[in-house]
Every structure is written in C-alpha cells, then in structure tokens.
Amino acid sequence: MKVIITGSTGMVGKGVLLECLDSPKIEKVLAINRSTLGMEHPKLEEILLKDFLQIASVKDKLKGYDGCFYCMGVSAVGMNEEKYNTITFNTVKAFADVLFELNPNMIFNYVSGSGTDSSENGRSMWARVKGKTENYVLNKRFKDAYAFRPGAIIPERGIQSRTGWYNAIYLLMRPFFGMLKKSKNVTTTTKIGLAMINSLYNSQELKHLENRDINSLVEN
C-alpha cells in the first residue's frame, strides 16, 4: 500500500508516520508538510507545501496512492471562525477534491477530535467546523473514509507535542502512563498509527472513531 500523510511534524502525524515506515504493509509514504521532517528513509518521500490550499499545484505527484492519513490541524484558540474555517475546512476540502479526482478508490482518514459536532449547529465554533469537515470527507464517496476522533492521547517513541503546555502536562502525567494505557478510553500515538494502517485492510461500519474504537481497530 502507498499512503499520503499530512501533519507528520505534529504529535499525531509523527506517530502515524513512524508506524507506516515500520510496517511491512506500507510500501511508500509521501509526507506533505509545511516544514521539513529532517529525516530520511527508503520508503519516505517529502513534499514541502507552504499553502495547503494550493495542493493542486503538486497533483502530478499524487496519483497512485491507496490512502491519505490527514493528520494536519491547528488549535482554534485565539482564532475567529472565518480563519479557523479556512485553515481547517478549506484545506481538507482542497485535499479531498484533488485526491478524489486522482485516486477515487483510496481510503481517506481525517483526524478530527473528541467532541466534534456532526450537526454543524452547536455552540462550539471548533466543533462545528470540524463537524463540517468530517461530513465533507465522509460524503465524498472515496472507497472508504473515517473521522478519527481521539481524545486523551499518550505520546510514545519519544514523540512530543508542538504545543508547549501539552508537553508540560505529559511530563507531570508520565508516572501514570502505564496505568492510563490500560484504559480503553485512552489511546496512544502508536495505536492511532496502527489503526490507520489497519483501516486500509479492514472496512469498519462505524465511520466516527473515538478512542475506544481506535484501540479496537488496532486488534483487527
């Protein structure tokens, strides 16, 4: 299988990337990022794209892929809805449109978040925008598509969040990681990566995957 990954400089995306590079099920990984990963691997190719809305400018390099793991995202803190919608919904829409044109039989996984509002009518701005984005992807008619909605995530394999205060919390919580990992309602960067890979091979009836569902998909 050949996959495209976005957001692999972030915590979730890096976890997905490492699992894909290690997996014998994945033949090639195309990482599309705004800044370089600074790493080399026989399976890995990287495209730097400052403006994700311009994804069509590199469409000649995007054909022939079996999956897209869209892990790129930003915090809504301090953002108005117009700007957050542009960064979140518009960029995913641009990716989905181009990739569907080139690879309609691919599986598209979008990393959303726990608490996302599928009705698009709730009070929470970020949840509405994420819900609209999920709905667009799931209704695009790819071979299959999933909205990953992780909540509590434990970073593994030396991965750190790009958000400083997250790392401070993780440092305080580290002594409890072993206990937390036993909970079906807590997932890890490793499990998200493995679940993404398994989604290429095992179609799921449930399309919105919370932590419990992500962990279950790892076992399939």
Could you explain how this protein is built, in words?
There is one protein chain. By secondary structure, the chain is an alpha/beta fold. It has a single domain, classed as NAD(P)-binding Rossmann-like Domain (Rossmann fold, 3-Layer(aba) Sandwich), CATH 3.40.50. It has 7 helices and 9 strands, in the order βαβββαβαββααβαβα. The protein has helices at 11-22, 81-102, 125-138, 164-173, 177-180, 189-199, 211-218; strands spanning 2-6, 28-33, 44-48, 67-70, 107-111, 144-149, 152-154, 186-188, 208-210. Strand 5 (107-111), helix 3 and strand 6 (144-149) form a beta-alpha-beta unit.
The counted number of beta strands is 9
What's the main sheet like?
A: 7 strands, parallel
The CATH homologous superfamily is named NAD(P)-binding Rossmann-like Domain
Q: How many domains make up the 3D coordinates? A: 1
Within the largest sheet, what's the order of strands? Answer: 3-2-1-4-5-6-9
Silhouette: globular
What Rg, in angstroms, do the CA atoms define?
A: 16 Å
State the distance separating the first and last CA atoms.
17 Å
CATH topology heading: Rossmann fold
Mean pLDDT: 91
SSE run: EHEEEHEHEEHHEHEH
- Going by helix content, strand content and strand pairing, the class is alpha/beta
Task: Please summarize what this structure is.
This protein has a single domain, classed as Rossmann fold, CATH 3.40.50.720. Helix content is about 35%, strand content about 20%.
